[in-house]
Amino acid sequence: MIQRTFYLLSILLITISCNSSFSEKEKEEYRVKGKEIAEASFLALSTQLTEQMKAGGPAQAIPFCNQKAMPITNELSDKFKATIKRTSNNLRNPDNAPSKRESEILADFQKMKMDGKQLSPIVELDANNKKHFYAPIILKANCLVCHGKLNETVNIKTDSIIKSLYPNDKATGYAEGDLRGIWSITFKNK
Ligand code: HEC
Predict the structure, then answer these.
(1) Which member of 98, 144, 152, 190 lies 3.0 to 4.6 Å from 87 by CB, making a disulfide possible if both were Cys?
(2) How confident is the model over 66-108, as pLDDT tens digits?
(3) What are the C-alpha distances in Å from 49 to residues 8, 26, 102, 158, 164?
């Protein structure tokens, strides 16, 4: 009798744990959603950035990013019912600081990149059953006016504007193709 109860209990437990896990089908669904959100966010930020750069160069675009990057991603967070964040292990804005899990993923991506491996987005469930999407952010040539090397792509004037707004800036010295950070998207539970 005891054995039988035990047997039934373990079946019940297995069923429950399987139900709360993340099926491959669901993972794929969130991978697609995550990519869509990251692309929309990138587009929103880069469209506005390009406009500001055309209108007034880094002197106008940097203060614009300083004031508008967060509100732009927050607005999209509401639209997509997900928290949208950009983070890095070489921060410019301290408000974008990584969580423990984000730091681990940044380190993993960095290592994979150094080993010459292909980076692809990660979808996972956390201990609170929240679904997360993480994807690499790779620097393009046009990012280097504000994230590249001083006196190569970043001029003195740009550097001083960055330093005045972000005295602890660590986000320069990069080259095209470098890993700049990650998108971290947390889906709100339905
Ligand atoms: C005109 C200057 C400028 C250009 C060009 C620029 N950035 Fe930035 N970047 C900034 C500023 C300023 C911030 C801080 C924004 C904020 O306060 O959130 C920032 C922040 C970031 C962050 C968030 C992490 C952190 O360190 O705070 C990422 C990721 C990032 N930039 C990637 C890029 C990529 C990729 C490109 C090219 C597609 C790019 N940037 C082009 C100025 C620039």
Answers:
(1) 98
(2) 999 999 999 999 999 999 999 999 999 999 999 999 999 999 9
(3) 60, 34, 25, 15, 19
